[in-house]
Amino acid sequence: MELLVSGASPGPLELKMSQLPAPLRSSFHGLKVGLVRSNAVATIRPNIFFCTYKRPHNGRNTKKREILPQNVDLPPILPKRKKKPYPIPIRKIQQAARADKKLAQMGIEKPLEPPKNGLLVPKLIPVAYEVLNAWKVLIRGIAQLMHVIPVHACRECSEIHVALTGHDIQDCRGPTSGTRKSFHSWIKGSINDVLLPIESYHMYDPFGRRIKHETRFSFDRIPAVVELCIQAGIELPEYPSRRRTKPIRMLGKKVIDNGGFVDEPGPASSGPLVMELDTFRALERFPPPSRSEVPRIAQETLNAYEEVRSGVTKLMKKYTVKACGYCSEVHVGPWGHNAKLCGEFKHQWRDGKHGWQDATVDEVFPPNYVWHVEDPSGPPLTSGLKRFYGKAPAVVELCMQAGARVPDNYRPMMRVDIVMPEDEEARFVA
């Protein structure tokens, strides 16, 4: 059907459906349109009639929601006889190095922005204080929950398990695991088994003299998260840090002006704040909570864990952290130290020096994945049903068994939607 409208018009004329004449409304339904609504708009041009439909705006957010997968693969176990993969592609690293070398050959200084030039980033100072406060809450919460929720650790490997009894999965790789048919030898776990102690050297001036193997005992070892917060702007009398007012200057890889070397002032006497930042004897410092307080402490601990991880991610986007590509050593600063303490794969070829590369969040604040247990008081996990089990970070599993609500982003790896078959049914499952 072709509809002609006589009369000239300087432009298109829009009419609501209710404004069209009755004969036109009756003939409108004969047009080849997919859907006719009461809020359709008819546009009339000379000798042309066409219709469009405007979807009503009902105030909904047009941004698509992030759809989490139903299940995800378990975290891979990196081989120890191979270097870790670079977090930044090697081609980008080489491209940036060639650009810096070209500027140095032309005599042009390397453009640096805070904090790469030694100055602080003002907007990240509140983030550092939030991370430090959440870190103290996290240590206190884990220590209190471990009085109520049993945690088991293997005597010979790094495996831990959060349940009433240890699991029966045969994946132990300890020195004498062959005599036990790869079964774990369970003992009572400590807080360092749940919250892995990743430490770093504290430096008064990260851009000053590098740590040598002979001078390594002159520097304190503190948690890497605390050192990252100190370099991001936190002031602790026990761990002073140099605050620059003038930026450093670099020509290629060479520092041509760092404001001179300054002697490190003596640290203040250790107070109670230093003890709150470390896990040393935390189970003795914090008494067991009452049964009614356990769910609240579990939720606060889980929230603190998420806040620490989120804050560390924000800080590491600006502040440089280095990690060894072979072992778990971490150094907070623009370049790594020279202490010869690496004993992993091919350390003889490197004279014990670390193979420094850019660190990831999991290396500074490791999640330490453990097997997820649906029923902590039920039968132990077995090797026959291993492929049906999920995993979760040790802190998340500990808080979940204490009554905390698990965030949705951990549920796919925990595989909470999988129905666990019986032992004799497992071989029939596709």
From TrEMBL:
Top-level taxon in the UniProt lineage: Eukaryota
Domain annotation APO: ranges: 153-238, 323-408
Coiled-coil boundaries: none
GO MF entries: RNA binding
Listed InterPro entries: APO_dom
Pfam families: APO_RNA-bind (PF05634)
Protein name, UniProt field: Apo protein 1 chloroplastic
Phylogenetic lineage: Eukaryota, Viridiplantae, Streptophyta, Embryophyta, Tracheophyta
